Amino acid sequence: MADIVVDGERIVRLGPGAGAGVAPAVDCTGKLVLPAYIDGHVHLDKVLIRDELREHDGTLSGAIGAIHERKRRYTLDDVRGRAREVIEESVRSGTTRLRSHVDVDTIGGLRPLEGVLAAAAECDDIAVVQTIAFPQEGLLRDPGAYDLMEAALETGAHVVGGMPHWEVDEDAQREHVRLCFELADRFDRDVDMHVDETDDGGVRTLEMVADEALRRGFIGRVCAGHVCSLAAADHEYADRVIAKCRRAGISIAANPVTNLVLQGRGDRGLIRRGTTRIAEMRAAGVNVLFGQDCVKDGFYPFGRGSMLEVALISAHAAHLTTRSDLAFALTAVTDAPARAMRLTDYGLAVGARADLQLLPVPSWEEAIRVQPLPEKVWFKGRLVAENSVRSELHRRS
Ligand SMILES: [Zn+2]
User: Fold this and answer.
1) How far is the CA of 303 from the centre of ligand 1 (A)?
2) Is 150 a catalytic residue?
3) Are 173 and 167 in contact (CB under 8 A)?
4) Strand order in the sheet with 382-386
5) In angstroms, rounded to a whole number, what is the distance separating the alpha carbons of residues 8 and 71?
6) What's the predicted TM-score (pTM) here?
Protein backbone atom coordinates (compact mmCIF):
# COMPACT_ATOMS: atom_id res chain seq x y z
CA MET A 1 0.00 0.00 0.00
CA ALA A 2 1.62 3.24 -1.10
CA ASP A 3 0.79 6.79 -2.07
CA ILE A 4 1.80 8.50 -5.31
CA VAL A 5 2.02 12.27 -5.13
CA VAL A 6 1.98 14.13 -8.45
CA ASP A 7 2.77 17.79 -8.86
CA GLY A 8 2.35 19.18 -12.36
CA GLU A 9 3.78 16.69 -14.85
CA ARG A 10 5.95 14.76 -12.39
CA ILE A 11 5.79 12.22 -9.60
CA VAL A 12 7.24 14.09 -6.61
CA ARG A 13 6.76 11.61 -3.75
CA LEU A 14 6.17 7.90 -3.60
CA GLY A 15 5.72 5.28 -0.90
CA PRO A 16 3.75 4.44 2.24
CA GLY A 17 2.63 7.65 3.92
CA ALA A 18 4.01 9.82 1.10
CA GLY A 19 0.61 11.46 0.70
CA ALA A 20 0.36 12.63 4.32
CA GLY A 21 -0.99 16.17 4.36
CA VAL A 22 -2.03 16.02 0.68
CA ALA A 23 -5.72 15.89 -0.17
CA PRO A 24 -6.26 12.50 -1.87
CA ALA A 25 -7.36 12.99 -5.46
CA VAL A 26 -7.97 9.39 -6.49
CA ASP A 27 -8.56 6.46 -4.14
CA CYS A 28 -6.79 3.48 -5.67
CA THR A 29 -7.44 1.06 -2.80
CA GLY A 30 -7.59 -2.53 -4.02
CA LYS A 31 -6.69 -1.53 -7.56
CA LEU A 32 -3.50 -1.58 -9.60
CA VAL A 33 -1.52 1.49 -10.61
CA LEU A 34 0.98 0.97 -13.41
CA PRO A 35 3.07 3.31 -15.49
CA ALA A 36 1.28 3.86 -18.81
CA TYR A 37 2.35 1.30 -21.40
CA ILE A 38 4.76 2.05 -24.22
CA ASP A 39 4.22 0.65 -27.70
CA GLY A 40 7.82 0.47 -28.84
CA HIS A 41 7.14 -0.95 -32.31
CA VAL A 42 4.12 -0.02 -34.39
CA HIS A 43 3.44 1.14 -37.97
CA LEU A 44 0.96 4.00 -37.73
CA ASP A 45 1.11 4.86 -41.45
CA LYS A 46 -0.32 1.46 -42.41
CA VAL A 47 -3.00 1.02 -39.76
CA LEU A 48 -6.64 0.32 -40.72
CA ILE A 49 -6.06 -0.18 -44.48
CA ARG A 50 -6.90 -3.89 -44.44
CA ASP A 51 -10.40 -3.64 -45.96
CA GLU A 52 -9.03 -1.90 -49.05
CA LEU A 53 -6.32 -4.45 -49.87
CA ARG A 54 -6.51 -7.48 -52.13
CA GLU A 55 -6.14 -10.83 -50.38
CA HIS A 56 -2.66 -12.40 -50.43
CA ASP A 57 -0.80 -15.49 -49.20
CA GLY A 58 -0.44 -14.25 -45.62
CA THR A 59 3.37 -13.94 -45.74
CA LEU A 60 5.51 -10.85 -45.19
CA SER A 61 6.29 -10.50 -48.89
CA GLY A 62 2.64 -11.11 -49.81
CA ALA A 63 1.60 -8.29 -47.49
CA ILE A 64 4.27 -5.88 -48.71
CA GLY A 65 3.18 -6.47 -52.31
CA ALA A 66 -0.51 -6.04 -51.48
CA ILE A 67 0.14 -2.70 -49.80
CA HIS A 68 1.96 -1.11 -52.78
CA GLU A 69 -1.19 -0.15 -54.65
CA ARG A 70 -2.76 1.43 -51.56
CA LYS A 71 0.47 3.20 -50.61
CA ARG A 72 0.51 4.94 -54.01
CA ARG A 73 -2.88 6.47 -53.11
CA TYR A 74 -1.91 7.69 -49.61
CA THR A 75 -2.69 11.32 -48.92
CA LEU A 76 -1.51 13.28 -45.93
CA ASP A 77 -5.05 13.53 -44.56
CA ASP A 78 -5.71 9.83 -45.08
CA VAL A 79 -2.57 8.80 -43.15
CA ARG A 80 -3.17 11.43 -40.49
CA GLY A 81 -6.75 10.31 -39.85
CA ARG A 82 -5.92 6.62 -39.54
CA ALA A 83 -2.85 7.21 -37.36
CA ARG A 84 -4.82 9.53 -35.13
CA GLU A 85 -7.55 6.94 -34.63
CA VAL A 86 -5.04 4.35 -33.43
CA ILE A 87 -3.15 6.81 -31.21
CA GLU A 88 -6.46 7.70 -29.53
CA GLU A 89 -7.39 4.03 -29.18
CA SER A 90 -3.97 3.32 -27.68
CA VAL A 91 -4.38 6.08 -25.09
CA ARG A 92 -7.79 4.72 -24.09
CA SER A 93 -6.06 1.37 -23.55
CA GLY A 94 -3.35 2.83 -21.33
CA THR A 95 -0.52 3.66 -23.76
CA THR A 96 0.89 7.20 -23.82
CA ARG A 97 4.16 6.71 -25.72
CA LEU A 98 4.51 5.11 -29.12
CA ARG A 99 7.45 4.58 -31.44
CA SER A 100 6.22 4.26 -35.01
CA HIS A 101 8.06 3.03 -38.07
CA VAL A 102 6.96 5.00 -41.12
CA ASP A 103 7.62 3.80 -44.68
CA VAL A 104 10.14 5.89 -46.59
CA ASP A 105 10.46 4.73 -50.20
CA THR A 106 9.92 5.77 -53.81
CA ILE A 107 6.31 4.54 -53.77
CA GLY A 108 4.86 6.73 -51.03
CA GLY A 109 7.68 9.26 -50.77
CA LEU A 110 7.41 11.28 -47.56
CA ARG A 111 3.59 11.23 -47.38
CA PRO A 112 3.45 8.49 -44.71
CA LEU A 113 5.89 10.43 -42.53
CA GLU A 114 4.12 13.73 -43.00
CA GLY A 115 0.79 12.12 -42.13
CA VAL A 116 2.08 10.44 -38.97
CA LEU A 117 3.90 13.61 -37.86
CA ALA A 118 0.64 15.55 -38.35
CA ALA A 119 -1.28 12.99 -36.26
CA ALA A 120 1.41 13.10 -33.58
CA ALA A 121 1.14 16.88 -33.41
CA GLU A 122 -2.66 16.69 -33.18
CA CYS A 123 -2.39 14.20 -30.33
CA ASP A 124 0.42 15.84 -28.37
CA ASP A 125 -1.99 16.59 -25.52
CA ILE A 126 -2.54 12.86 -24.87
CA ALA A 127 0.58 11.02 -26.09
CA VAL A 128 4.11 11.32 -27.45
CA VAL A 129 4.83 9.64 -30.77
CA GLN A 130 8.38 9.07 -32.04
CA THR A 131 8.87 8.27 -35.72
CA ILE A 132 11.37 5.98 -37.42
CA ALA A 133 12.28 6.51 -41.08
CA PHE A 134 11.80 2.98 -42.40
CA PRO A 135 13.07 2.02 -45.90
CA GLN A 136 10.84 -1.04 -46.19
CA GLU A 137 11.46 -1.50 -49.90
CA GLY A 138 15.24 -1.57 -49.34
CA LEU A 139 17.94 1.02 -49.94
CA LEU A 140 19.82 -0.66 -52.78
CA ARG A 141 16.71 -2.41 -54.15
CA ASP A 142 14.86 0.89 -54.25
CA PRO A 143 17.13 3.50 -55.88
CA GLY A 144 16.18 6.91 -54.54
CA ALA A 145 15.23 5.63 -51.10
CA TYR A 146 18.50 6.76 -49.52
CA ASP A 147 17.91 10.38 -50.60
CA LEU A 148 14.38 10.13 -49.20
CA MET A 149 15.80 8.82 -45.92
CA GLU A 150 17.95 11.94 -45.66
CA ALA A 151 14.90 14.10 -46.44
CA ALA A 152 12.84 12.20 -43.84
CA LEU A 153 15.41 12.87 -41.13
CA GLU A 154 15.52 16.53 -42.14
CA THR A 155 11.69 16.61 -42.06
CA GLY A 156 11.58 15.39 -38.46
CA ALA A 157 11.84 11.58 -38.28
CA HIS A 158 13.49 10.85 -34.95
CA VAL A 159 15.19 7.52 -35.57
CA VAL A 160 16.92 5.72 -38.48
CA GLY A 161 15.16 2.53 -39.53
CA GLY A 162 16.23 -0.22 -41.89
CA MET A 163 15.39 -3.63 -43.32
CA PRO A 164 18.65 -5.21 -44.45
CA HIS A 165 17.31 -8.72 -45.05
CA TRP A 166 15.14 -7.33 -47.85
CA GLU A 167 18.18 -6.65 -50.06
CA VAL A 168 19.10 -9.23 -52.73
CA ASP A 169 22.35 -10.66 -51.35
CA GLU A 170 24.71 -10.51 -48.39
CA ASP A 171 26.90 -7.77 -49.84
CA ALA A 172 23.84 -5.58 -50.38
CA GLN A 173 22.57 -6.41 -46.88
CA ARG A 174 25.88 -5.38 -45.34
CA GLU A 175 25.87 -2.17 -47.37
CA HIS A 176 22.29 -1.46 -46.26
CA VAL A 177 23.37 -1.78 -42.62
CA ARG A 178 26.40 0.44 -43.23
CA LEU A 179 24.27 3.12 -44.92
CA CYS A 180 21.78 3.17 -42.03
CA PHE A 181 24.51 3.61 -39.43
CA GLU A 182 26.19 6.25 -41.57
CA LEU A 183 22.91 8.20 -41.58
CA ALA A 184 22.52 7.72 -37.83
CA ASP A 185 26.07 8.94 -37.28
CA ARG A 186 25.62 11.95 -39.52
CA PHE A 187 22.27 13.02 -38.06
CA ASP A 188 23.12 11.86 -34.53
CA ARG A 189 20.08 9.54 -34.30
CA ASP A 190 19.49 6.13 -32.79
CA VAL A 191 18.85 3.08 -34.97
CA ASP A 192 15.76 0.87 -34.95
CA MET A 193 15.68 -1.70 -37.75
CA HIS A 194 13.55 -4.57 -39.00
CA VAL A 195 15.95 -7.48 -38.93
CA ASP A 196 15.66 -11.01 -40.30
CA GLU A 197 11.87 -11.24 -40.35
CA THR A 198 11.96 -14.64 -42.00
CA ASP A 199 12.01 -18.34 -41.04
CA ASP A 200 15.14 -18.85 -43.18
CA GLY A 201 17.96 -19.58 -40.72
CA GLY A 202 20.49 -18.70 -43.42
CA VAL A 203 19.45 -15.03 -43.27
CA ARG A 204 21.85 -13.48 -40.79
CA THR A 205 21.79 -9.71 -40.82
CA LEU A 206 21.44 -9.36 -37.02
CA GLU A 207 25.14 -10.14 -36.69
CA MET A 208 25.91 -7.46 -39.29
CA VAL A 209 23.91 -4.96 -37.23
CA ALA A 210 25.67 -5.98 -34.00
CA ASP A 211 29.11 -5.82 -35.65
CA GLU A 212 28.40 -2.35 -37.06
CA ALA A 213 27.08 -1.11 -33.70
CA LEU A 214 30.20 -2.41 -31.93
CA ARG A 215 32.53 -1.00 -34.60
CA ARG A 216 31.00 2.48 -34.36
CA GLY A 217 30.49 2.47 -30.60
CA PHE A 218 26.69 2.68 -30.94
CA ILE A 219 26.27 1.01 -27.56
CA GLY A 220 22.71 0.97 -26.21
CA ARG A 221 21.47 2.96 -29.20
CA VAL A 222 20.16 0.20 -31.45
CA CYS A 223 16.92 -1.76 -31.49
CA ALA A 224 16.41 -4.77 -33.77
CA GLY A 225 12.86 -5.84 -34.52
CA HIS A 226 11.51 -9.36 -35.15
CA VAL A 227 14.78 -11.31 -35.61
CA CYS A 228 12.76 -14.44 -36.42
CA SER A 229 15.45 -16.30 -38.38
CA LEU A 230 17.71 -16.51 -35.34
CA ALA A 231 15.35 -19.18 -34.02
CA ALA A 232 16.11 -21.31 -37.08
CA ALA A 233 19.90 -20.84 -36.96
CA ASP A 234 22.10 -23.37 -35.16
CA HIS A 235 22.46 -22.92 -31.41
CA GLU A 236 26.17 -22.15 -31.39
CA TYR A 237 25.75 -19.37 -33.91
CA ALA A 238 22.73 -17.99 -32.06
CA ASP A 239 24.65 -17.98 -28.75
CA ARG A 240 27.44 -15.99 -30.37
CA VAL A 241 25.09 -13.41 -31.89
CA ILE A 242 23.07 -13.03 -28.67
CA ALA A 243 26.35 -12.39 -26.81
CA LYS A 244 27.22 -9.70 -29.36
CA CYS A 245 23.79 -8.11 -28.94
CA ARG A 246 24.36 -8.07 -25.20
CA ARG A 247 27.76 -6.42 -25.65
CA ALA A 248 26.35 -3.80 -28.03
CA GLY A 249 23.38 -3.14 -25.73
CA ILE A 250 21.00 -3.95 -28.60
CA SER A 251 17.33 -4.12 -27.65
CA ILE A 252 15.19 -6.72 -29.38
CA ALA A 253 11.63 -5.85 -30.33
CA ALA A 254 10.16 -9.33 -30.51
CA ASN A 255 6.69 -8.89 -31.93
CA PRO A 256 5.13 -12.31 -31.37
CA VAL A 257 1.62 -11.05 -32.09
CA THR A 258 2.27 -10.55 -35.80
CA ASN A 259 5.04 -13.09 -36.25
CA LEU A 260 2.69 -15.83 -34.99
CA VAL A 261 0.56 -15.28 -38.08
CA LEU A 262 3.19 -14.19 -40.63
CA GLN A 263 5.84 -16.87 -40.11
CA GLY A 264 5.64 -20.64 -40.40
CA ARG A 265 3.45 -20.38 -43.50
CA GLY A 266 5.56 -22.91 -45.38
CA ASP A 267 5.47 -25.54 -42.64
CA ARG A 268 3.35 -28.69 -42.41
CA GLY A 269 2.77 -30.65 -39.22
CA LEU A 270 4.98 -28.95 -36.66
CA ILE A 271 4.38 -25.33 -37.59
CA ARG A 272 6.92 -22.85 -36.25
CA ARG A 273 5.75 -20.00 -34.04
CA GLY A 274 7.97 -17.50 -35.85
CA THR A 275 9.18 -15.79 -32.70
CA THR A 276 12.82 -15.16 -31.96
CA ARG A 277 14.76 -16.77 -29.07
CA ILE A 278 12.96 -14.79 -26.40
CA ALA A 279 13.84 -17.01 -23.43
CA GLU A 280 17.50 -17.21 -24.39
CA MET A 281 17.78 -13.47 -24.86
CA ARG A 282 16.06 -12.87 -21.56
CA ALA A 283 18.47 -15.29 -19.83
CA ALA A 284 21.43 -13.53 -21.45
CA GLY A 285 20.28 -10.16 -20.15
CA VAL A 286 19.28 -8.72 -23.53
CA ASN A 287 16.55 -6.07 -23.34
CA VAL A 288 13.44 -7.62 -24.96
CA LEU A 289 10.24 -5.71 -25.69
CA PHE A 290 6.91 -6.66 -27.24
CA GLY A 291 5.27 -4.31 -29.76
CA GLN A 292 1.83 -4.20 -31.31
CA ASP A 293 3.49 -3.83 -34.73
CA CYS A 294 0.30 -3.91 -36.80
CA VAL A 295 -3.31 -2.81 -36.48
CA LYS A 296 -5.63 -4.12 -39.19
CA ASP A 297 -3.15 -3.72 -42.03
CA GLY A 298 -1.84 -5.99 -44.77
CA PHE A 299 0.17 -8.06 -42.33
CA TYR A 300 -2.32 -8.58 -39.52
CA PRO A 301 -6.13 -8.33 -39.45
CA PHE A 302 -6.39 -7.70 -35.69
CA GLY A 303 -4.86 -5.31 -33.14
CA ARG A 304 -6.46 -2.44 -31.25
CA GLY A 305 -3.56 -0.63 -29.64
CA SER A 306 -3.90 -2.66 -26.47
CA MET A 307 -0.51 -3.50 -24.98
CA LEU A 308 -2.32 -5.63 -22.40
CA GLU A 309 -3.56 -7.80 -25.27
CA VAL A 310 -0.06 -7.78 -26.79
CA ALA A 311 1.36 -8.99 -23.46
CA LEU A 312 -1.23 -11.80 -23.28
CA ILE A 313 -0.70 -13.07 -26.82
CA SER A 314 3.08 -12.79 -26.43
CA ALA A 315 2.87 -14.76 -23.18
CA HIS A 316 1.22 -17.61 -25.10
CA ALA A 317 3.79 -17.45 -27.89
CA ALA A 318 6.79 -17.37 -25.55
CA HIS A 319 5.62 -19.86 -22.87
CA LEU A 320 5.38 -17.17 -20.19
CA THR A 321 3.34 -18.61 -17.31
CA THR A 322 5.18 -18.34 -13.95
CA ARG A 323 4.94 -15.21 -11.79
CA SER A 324 8.43 -14.25 -12.87
CA ASP A 325 7.48 -14.87 -16.52
CA LEU A 326 4.40 -12.66 -16.22
CA ALA A 327 6.48 -9.94 -14.60
CA PHE A 328 8.76 -10.19 -17.64
CA ALA A 329 5.72 -9.77 -19.93
CA LEU A 330 4.84 -6.56 -18.06
CA THR A 331 8.40 -5.30 -18.38
CA ALA A 332 8.27 -6.02 -22.12
CA VAL A 333 5.48 -3.43 -22.58
CA THR A 334 6.79 -0.89 -20.04
CA ASP A 335 10.42 -0.68 -18.88
CA ALA A 336 11.96 -2.55 -21.82
CA PRO A 337 10.62 -0.20 -24.52
CA ALA A 338 11.55 2.73 -22.25
CA ARG A 339 15.10 1.43 -22.19
CA ALA A 340 15.14 0.84 -25.96
CA MET A 341 14.00 4.44 -26.45
CA ARG A 342 16.50 5.65 -23.85
CA LEU A 343 13.82 7.42 -21.82
CA THR A 344 15.10 8.83 -18.56
CA ASP A 345 11.77 9.98 -17.12
CA TYR A 346 9.72 6.78 -17.24
CA GLY A 347 8.21 4.58 -14.57
CA LEU A 348 6.80 4.63 -11.07
CA ALA A 349 9.63 6.68 -9.60
CA VAL A 350 10.18 10.08 -8.06
CA GLY A 351 11.01 12.54 -10.82
CA ALA A 352 9.39 10.42 -13.56
CA ARG A 353 6.74 11.92 -15.80
CA ALA A 354 3.31 11.13 -14.38
CA ASP A 355 2.11 8.90 -17.22
CA LEU A 356 0.03 6.46 -15.22
CA GLN A 357 -2.96 4.17 -15.40
CA LEU A 358 -5.38 2.72 -12.88
CA LEU A 359 -6.64 -0.80 -13.51
CA PRO A 360 -9.72 -2.26 -11.72
CA VAL A 361 -7.88 -5.38 -10.55
CA PRO A 362 -5.62 -6.07 -7.55
CA SER A 363 -2.57 -7.40 -9.42
CA TRP A 364 -0.78 -7.61 -12.77
CA GLU A 365 -1.51 -11.36 -12.92
CA GLU A 366 -5.21 -10.54 -12.79
CA ALA A 367 -4.81 -7.72 -15.30
CA ILE A 368 -3.21 -9.93 -17.94
CA ARG A 369 -5.78 -12.67 -17.31
CA VAL A 370 -9.01 -10.65 -17.40
CA GLN A 371 -7.81 -7.88 -19.78
CA PRO A 372 -9.62 -4.90 -18.26
CA LEU A 373 -9.53 -1.44 -19.76
CA PRO A 374 -7.87 1.05 -17.41
CA GLU A 375 -10.38 3.05 -15.37
CA LYS A 376 -8.20 6.10 -15.75
CA VAL A 377 -5.16 7.11 -17.77
CA TRP A 378 -2.96 10.11 -17.02
CA PHE A 379 -0.49 11.81 -19.38
CA LYS A 380 1.92 14.33 -17.86
CA GLY A 381 -0.19 14.29 -14.70
CA ARG A 382 -3.41 15.16 -16.54
CA LEU A 383 -6.36 12.77 -16.78
CA VAL A 384 -6.67 11.92 -20.49
CA ALA A 385 -8.91 8.86 -20.63
CA GLU A 386 -11.56 7.11 -18.56
CA ASN A 387 -13.31 3.84 -19.22
CA SER A 388 -16.22 2.18 -17.47
CA VAL A 389 -17.71 -1.20 -18.32
CA ARG A 390 -21.16 -2.28 -17.15
CA SER A 391 -21.93 -5.95 -16.90
CA GLU A 392 -24.87 -7.56 -15.15
CA LEU A 393 -25.78 -11.16 -14.61
CA HIS A 394 -29.49 -11.87 -14.19
CA ARG A 395 -30.03 -14.93 -11.95
CA ARG A 396 -33.45 -16.45 -11.36
CA SER A 397 -34.93 -14.99 -8.15
ZN1 LIG B 1 7.33 -3.92 -37.85
Assistant:
1) 13
2) no
3) yes
4) 32-35, 356-359, 376-379, 382-386
5) 42
6) 0.97
Query: Over the range 12-22, which residues count as b (16 or more CB within 10 Å of their CB) and which as e?
Result: ebbeeebbeee
What gap in Å lies between CA 390 and CA 92, rounded to an integer?
17
Give me the percent of the chain exceeding a pLDDT of 70: 100
Max intra-chain CA distance, the chain: 75
- At 306, the amino acid letter reads S
| CA-CA-CA-CA torsion sign (104, 117, 55, 57) | positive
Look at residue 382 and give its three-state secondary structure. strand
- Give me ligand 1 centre to Cα 296, in Å: 13
Looking at residue 188, its pLDDT comes to: 98
Catalytic annotation, pick one of 88, 137, 197, 207: 197
State the chain's mean pLDDT as an integer: 96
User: pLDDT tens digit string along 105-161?
Assistant: 999 999 999 999 999 999 999 999 999 999 999 999 999 999 999 999 999 999 999
Q: Which residues contact 45 (CB under 8 A, 6 or more apart)?
A: 74, 79, 82, 83, 100, 102, 103, 108, 112, 113, 115, 116
CA 374 to chain centre: 20
